[in-house]
Amino acid sequence: MAEARSAWITGIGIVSCLGEGIDAHWDGLNAASPQADTTTFAPYIVHPLSPLELDKQIPKKGDQRQMEPWQRIGTYAAGLALDSAGVKGQADILSHMDMIVAAGGGERDASVDSIVMSGLPKAADPDAYLNERLMSDLRPTLFLAQLSNLLAGNISIVHGVTGSSRTFMGEEAAGVDAVRIALSRIAGGQSDIALVGGAHNGERKDLLMLYEFGGFNQKDRFAPVWDRGSAGGFALGSLGAFLVLESPEHARARGAKPFAALRTVLSDNVKRAPGSVTRTLGRMWDSLAPRIDPAHVAVMSGATGASPATVEERDFLAGHPDIAVRAPGSHVGHAPEPQFPFNVALAAVAVSRGNLFPPADTTGVERPMDRSVKQVVVTGVGHWRGEGMALVEPAA
Amino acid sequence: MSANRDKAGRPIVVVTGMGMVTSLGAGKADNWAKLTAGQSGIREITRFGTQGLKTRIAGTVDFMDVEPFSSAALSSRLAETAAEEAIAESGIGARGDFPGPLFLAVPPIEVEWPHRQELAAASGANDTVTYDDLLRAGATGRFNAMHRRFMFGSVATDLAERFGTKGSPISLSTACASGASAIQLGVEAIRRGETDAALCIGSDGSVNAESLIRFSLLSALSVHNDPPEAASKPFAKNRDGFVMAEGAGALVLESLESATARGAKILGVVAGCGEKADSFHRTRSSPDGKPIIGCIASGLEDAGLAPDDIDYVNAHGTGTPENDKMEYLGMTTVFGERMKRIPISSNKSMIGHTLSAAGAVEAVVTLLTLAHQRIPPTINFDVPDPGIELDVVPHKARDASMRHAISNSFGFGGQNVSLVLSREPS
């Protein structure tokens, strides 16, 4: 296949436990002292969202009330990205802006669920009891706060992004593929400008339960992702990340300044077996290698701490001992859908500033980088499926 | 310009295989016979107790063997059945080795009540049950299978493994437009030259108590329970909501060049795709109809066709008071006076609203309509709405000469997609 054109990253909107916006994140990452909440959901560990002044990006209280936290986080981050790109409120651009959101959803009303679960075993007619309780206890609008595509719907309503609206589901892979397809459409001339990203509320017991089925949660002991060992898990994080991707022509025509260029996004879905993640990342790296300048490249890793994916990624990285690696997940936790867009955003910041934040790891995977950063390879390995890699470069 | 490219110089995208399952049955032949006979698949719900519910009917698919049962498992099975039929018809690739990516429209995956009950029982909590109890049960490792089953990517992963599709499978949701979005993503990938073929599926097996209650609480569902087959009344004055339904539609999309080279039979063409998001409201369309109008117009533009080229419209036609009125407004604005004479019918009158699957199921039916030159009717059109002057092909199927058709799909969250489908490459 002919080499595709790149897209420029002209807008970044990120929120997490480190705060909101690029500077807060860069400062937090430079502090190099990852923190997490080990008590609220003990024995589970989470990275709670730094409180947001919602009115700044979601001015109508009515809109805020119609959303659950994951949608507010995402709508807020999307607003930051539009501000950052300088297109907020510009109806002529927003009306043709394409949107791909990587979303989960399904935020439960825990108190309703508890009432129903407690009552069902005692009910004379369980079906009738379930129907009666749900009919009277479920808020009618909760459904809209749960539907996966309603983050995109809320972004259309609050920010006026209406060119197109697509929602990808499927945990980590959804985030990788959202960025990949947004880039492919721009590079292929099917889109000029796109808003792409996602959001996640990690402070949810129903989600902890889902991952607990598979034993993926880190419990009791907080440590950086590389230091969780072969039985390690992830600590969920509340996080929102959106990027504005744009064709260089479209960006130049409106005088927009890029952070960096998104050159390539690769994704795959190999059947997991011992060594498969290591091999897949190696194959992806090899396909990027001809463009990579080993002296000035860094890796922004999506490692989550969950075994065996993180252990296998570490094995892949061990083959590139001279390259500086950073895993923002140690700082912000794991947010499956938006993690990859978030790390692409940090990669763009690193490229635009020409430097990296310091290591936050005592195992030796992360090492200081004293040379300037000109390229960043972003990895994104799903905890049970899906592998991704991106290359971020300076915008030419 | 090569004959394999469209007016814009892009690869022409054709359909070489189709499959479908609805409440009427499995397979295109059975469905087509029943659809053109005006038969309804809507029935009383037997899957769960409907005591106390306002709506007790749906177009459920009850003839599939799914164990252990969940909406995710049924959605997976429906998709698999439709895809088997489509791939077999297409003759593409080898068994378990489909030479292209998968785009799957699927309902958001959730843990369901039977599973919560199972976990609650396993937790040993005896009075008040909370998520802490479920977490404790989950931590035993006994429910490992629920992890994979209830991941959002689980159905796509099932299908990717079974059919050997290439690359990362895409699970997507654009609410009730999802099936059409899956087709659009496939079309775009082929036009970009990334692949010669794509497997596009819409599937939905999510008729369960909570899903039904959610739509019911939004007053979106018909409460015309008796008789069930008369409940779905698109475009009629007495329409009172949609009827939830299950099903799947699968299409093998291929570049014309690739299909011709391997001597595949061409079943139809996806000539264009239009989409437009609506920022008016979470569940309602902008009252000026502009997003719907923009969606249809962009589909026509993408196909390089004019409104006069369209011979038939497969309506979104849900039977809600709002949708049918807004769809009428959109269609008449784009097609003008001629809209009174363009036949437009709603498959949902017979199979109900298959939600995430609808766009794909109805694209298959539209292509069958073009292939057979015969239009399935809109049934239950007994009380015309004087505010909606359309030829809805009432009650009985009709033969017609048709080259190009539009299939509309609109959804909650401001989702609008229109596919322009053609009988053969022009």
Explain what you see.
The complex is a heterodimer of chains A (396) and B (426). Chain A is α/β, with parallel strands linked by helices. Chain A has one domain (7-108, 143-393): Thiolase/Chalcone synthase (Peroxisomal Thiolase, Chain A, domain 1, 3-Layer(aba) Sandwich), CATH 3.40.47. In chain A, 37% of the residues lie in helices and 18% in strands. Chain A is built from 15 helices and 13 strands. Chain A has helices at residues 22-30, 61-65, 69-85, 91-94, 110-119, 126-137, 142-146, 150-159, 171-187, 205-213, 248-253, 276-288, 309-318, 329-332, 339-353, and strands at 7-16, 19-20, 46-47, 98-102, 166-169, 193-200, 236-237, 239-246, 260-268, 297-300, 324-326, 375-381, 387-393. In chain A, strands 1, 2, 4, 5, 6, 8, 9, 10, 11, 12 and 13 form an 11-stranded mixed beta sheet that branches. In chain A, strands 3-7 form a two-stranded parallel ribbon. In chain A, helix 3 packs across helix 8. The model of chain A has no long low-confidence stretch (mean pLDDT 96). With 426 residues, chain B is an alpha/beta fold. Chain B has helices spanning 28-36, 71-90, 113-123, 131-138, 144-149, 154-163, 178-191, 209-217, 256-261, 290-303, 321-335, 348-351, 358-372, and strands at residues 13-22, 25-26, 43-44, 57-58, 102-105, 170-173, 197-204, 247-255, 268-275, 310-314, 344-345, 374-375, 398-399, 404-411, 415-422. In chain B, the strands form 3 sheets. In chain B, strands 1, 2, 5, 6, 7, 8, 9, 10, 11, 14 and 15 form an 11-stranded mixed beta sheet that branches. A two-stranded antiparallel sheet of chain B has the order 3-4. Chain B has a two-stranded antiparallel ribbon with strand order 12-13. The longest helix of chain B is centred in the N-terminal third of the chain and has 20 residues, at 71-90. At the A-B interface, helix 5, helix 6, helix 7, helix 8 and strand 5 of A face helix 3, helix 4, helix 5, helix 6 and strand 6 of B. Strand 5 of chain A pairs antiparallel with strand 6 of chain B.
